Amino acid sequence: MPKVLMKGNEAIGEAAIRAGCLNYFAYPITPQSEVAEYLVRRMPEVGGVFLQGESEVAVGYMLFGAAGAGARVFTTSSSPGISLMSEAISYIAGAQCPAVFVNIVRGGPGLGGILPSQGDYFQATKGIGHGDCRMLVMAPASVQEAVEMVMKAFPLAEKYRNPVMVLGDGLIGQMMEPVEFPDHLKSEPTNKDAWSTNGMDHRNSKKRNIVKSLFLDPALLNDNNLQLKAKYDQMRSDEVMFEAYNTDSEYKGLVVSFGTMSRVCRTAIDLMKADGIEIAMIRPKTLFPFPEKAVADASKKPTCTHIISVEMNMGQMVEDVDLSVKGHLPVSWYGKCGGEIPTPEEIIDVVKSRIA
Amino acid sequence: MQSEVMFAGFGGQGILVMGKILAHAAMEEKYEVAWVPSYGPEMRGGTAYCTVVIADHPIGSPIIKNPKHLVAMNGPSLEKFAPTVKKGGVIFINRSLISFGANRDDVDELAVKIMEIAKDLGSVKAANIVALSAFVARSGIVSMEALKHCIKEEFSNKPKLIPLNMEAVVAGEKAGKK
Amino acid sequence: MGKTFKRPEALTETDTHYCPGCTHGIIHRLVAETIDELGILGKTVGIAPVGCAVLAYNYFNCDFQEAAHGRAPAMATGIKRVRPDLMVFTYQGDGDLASIGMGEIIHAANRGEKFTTIFVNNAIYGMTGGQMAPTTMPDQRTTTSPFGRNVEDVGMPIKVAELLAALQTPAYITRQTVIKPKYINKAKKAIKQAFTYQLEKKCFSLVEVVSTCPTNWGMTPLDAIEWTEKTLLEYYKLGDYKIPA
C-alpha cells in the first residue's frame, strides 16, 4: 500500500480497524477527539460499532462488557479521561479480559493543559488502577510507530488477556506524517470460548462462563493475583522493546528518552556528533515492561560518565532508569511540561554540562 | 537536507491546509515530512499556525524554533515570527493585509497582494493557494507539478473548485517567480 | 400425575446467601422462569451489581459478568452493542442503580439500549449494612440516618420509574412488588414482558421491584411486608409508567 499523509489520531483509528478491531466506545476530550470523528464515519463502512458514551467512566465499562463477551474492543482518551477509566481498567485486569486503551497524553495534574506531555508515565506504568494490576504500555515516537503499536496492541491484549495501553502524546495525535498500513486485516479474534460470556449456544456448551474480579475467598484471590503476576513476569521476559541509538560509539553520556521527546534527543545527539561529542540513547518502546537490561548494559560503557532521563514531565521515568543503573553511575533528569518541549539546543547544553 | 516552513495567520485563512498541501507534495517527491499544527483554544478564531518539516532523512525533532522559511498571512504573525527565520530563507508576506516588511536584510522577502489576485480570479477563498504557489515558486521547495497534483487531491471531493484553484496556482507562480 | 413444580433450569442448585424474609429469592425465580419460558438460557448474559445480589452469578445458570458499583448498564451496553443477538439483563439494587449508577442507567435508558434491568428497591443499602439509600423514606432510620431521613438535609426519595419514564425515548418502565402472591403474578408478567420487548429488539425495559429488607429495617419478615405495603407502596405506586408504542 502506498504511503498516505495522515494525522496521528486518524491513523490510530484506521490502525485499529486494520487490526480487526471493529468496536469503539469513546468520550470526547482534547487532544484526541479526531479519533472519534474519524471512526464515526469509518466504522459503518466496515460494519463496526461506534458509540459515544456518556462519560469516560461509562466507556471503561462498555469496554469491559464488550471484552467480557469476547469482542475485540478499544477506546481512546486523554489524561483526565484515562483517570476516569482507571477504575474499569482495574476490573478488566482483575477479570482477565483483553482491551486496548490509547492515551494521547496532555499536561496535568487536574485539568492541566491540552498540549503534549508525558506526565502520565507513572499512572500508565505503575498506578493505572487499584489492586495488583498492571498494563503493558507502548510509547510511539512517530505516527507510523503509533499505527504499528496499535496493531500490535490487540494480539498482545489477547495473548495476556490484559489491558494494553498505547501511550502517545498530543503531538503524536495532532501531527501529520506519512504512514503505511499493512494490506491485510489481521485474522479473526482468538478463540474466547473458554472464558467469555459469548453465550452458551454460541459456543455449543452447557457450561456457563463468569467474567468477574470478585474473589471473596482470600486463597482464591491470592491464586488469581499469582496468575496476574505470572503474566506480568512473562511480559518482562518476552515483550520488552527498545531502540538503541549511537550505542556503538565511545559515548560519554547516555540519554534515556521515549516518545516525542526521544525525537528531539535524537536531533540533539546528531548535532553533538557533528561537533565531535558522542552521546548514545536508549529509547524504551515499552514503558512497562521497562527495558531495564538495555539501560543497565548501555550504562556500563567504560567511556560513559552520566545518564540523563529526558522527559516531558517533572521526572518520572528517571526512577526506572535509576533502578536499572543501580547506582553505579550518576543518573539525573531533565525535562519540561505543560506543553513546553525542550529544544535540541537546550538538551545539548544540559548534556554538555552534565558530562563535563 | 532539512528545511522547515512555518505558516501563520488568522484562523480561517486556510493556514493548516496550506501546510498540509505542501507536506503532501513533499511526500509525493519522496521526502520525509512532518506537519505540526498548533491546536487548542488558539485555533478558535485567533491565530493559527503550523510547521512543515521536509527532510531527506528521518525527521528528529518536529518542534522547530527557527524555521527556514515563513509564510506570514497577517501582521501579528510577521512581527512575531520574522525574527526567527534562518538566514537565507524566504519570508512570504500577504501584502493585502500587511503594509510593512520583515525588516531583515539576510532573507528573501516576497510580498504579494494575494487577496486582490484571488478576487480577480473569482473568489477570495483561493488567496491561500495563490500564496502557497507564490511561495513554492520562489523557494523551489517542491516542484510546481507536485504542488498542482496535491491541490487537485485536496479538492477531490469538491471538483467544482479545482479549475479556480489551478488558475490560482498559475497566478501565484507568476507573482512568486523572480 | 406430572410434575407441577420444579426449580427453573435457569437457576443453579446453590443455596442463596439471602436473609430470611428477603425477596431477592422470589425475584431471581421470576427471572429464571422467564428465561426458561422464553427458551433463551443459552444466549442470556446477566450482569450482577455491587450490593446484596453481588453473588447472583452463583445462582443463575447462564453466562454472567460482575460489574463495578453502578456500572452494570454501561457493561450491558457494551455487550448488547457488540452482540445484539445476546439477551442481556442487569440486576441492580437501589444504591447501585439510583445512587452511584444514576448516570449510567439514565443514559442507557435514553439511548434505548435493548437490554432489561431488574431494579430491586428496598429503600436501604443491604450488603454494606443498612445505610441510607436514595430511595430511603422520609424519617426512615438507617445507620447513616440514625434519627430518620431528614429530607431538609438530603432531599426526598427518588422515584426511579417516574424519573426514567420522563425520558422521551420509547421504553417499557414498570413498578411491581413481590411481597404477596397477588403481586407476584403481576410482577412475573411484567418481567416476562420486559424480556419479550428485548427479544423483539423493541426497547429498553426496566422493572422496578419494591422489596423488603427485614434485617436492616430491624423488623420481622411479616412486619416488613406490612411496612412495605403501608409505607413504601404509598410512595412508590405500582403500575406501568411507560409502554412502547
Q: Would you kindly provide a brief summary of this structure?
A:
With 178 residues, chain B is an alpha/beta fold. Chain B has six helices and six strands; from the N terminus they run βαβββαββαααα.
- Head-to-tail CA distance between termini of chain A: 48 Å
Tell me which CATH architecture of chain B applies here.
Answer: 3-Layer(aba) Sandwich
Oligomer: heterotrimer
- CATH homologous superfamily (4th level) name of chain B: Pyruvate-ferredoxin oxidoreductase, PFOR, domain III
Largest interface: A-C, 40 and 33 residues
Radius of gyration of chain B (Å): 15 Å
Q: Residue-averaged pLDDT of chain B, rounded?
A: 93
In the sheet with the most strands of chain B, the strands line up as: 2-3-1-4-5-6
Amino-to-carboxy terminus distance of chain B: 24 Å
Given the structure, what is the number of helices of chain B? 6
Strand content of chain B: 15-25%
The third-level CATH topology of chain B is Pyruvate-ferredoxin Oxidoreductase, domain 3
Going by helix content, strand content and strand pairing, the class of chain A is alpha/beta
Describe this protein's structure.
The complex is a heterotrimer of chains A (356), B (178) and C (245). By secondary structure, chain A is of the alpha/beta class. Chain A contains twelve helices and 15 strands. Chain B has six helices and six strands. Chain B has a six-stranded mixed sheet, with helices on both faces. At the A-C interface, α3, α4 and β9 of A face β1, β2, α2 and α4 of C.
Features of the shown structure:
heterotrimer, A: 356 residues, alpha/beta, Rossmann fold, 2 domains, five-stranded mixed sheet, 12 helices, 15 strands, 41% helix, 19% strand, B: 178 residues, Pyruvate-ferredoxin Oxidoreductase, domain 3, six-stranded mixed sheet, 6 strands, 21% strand
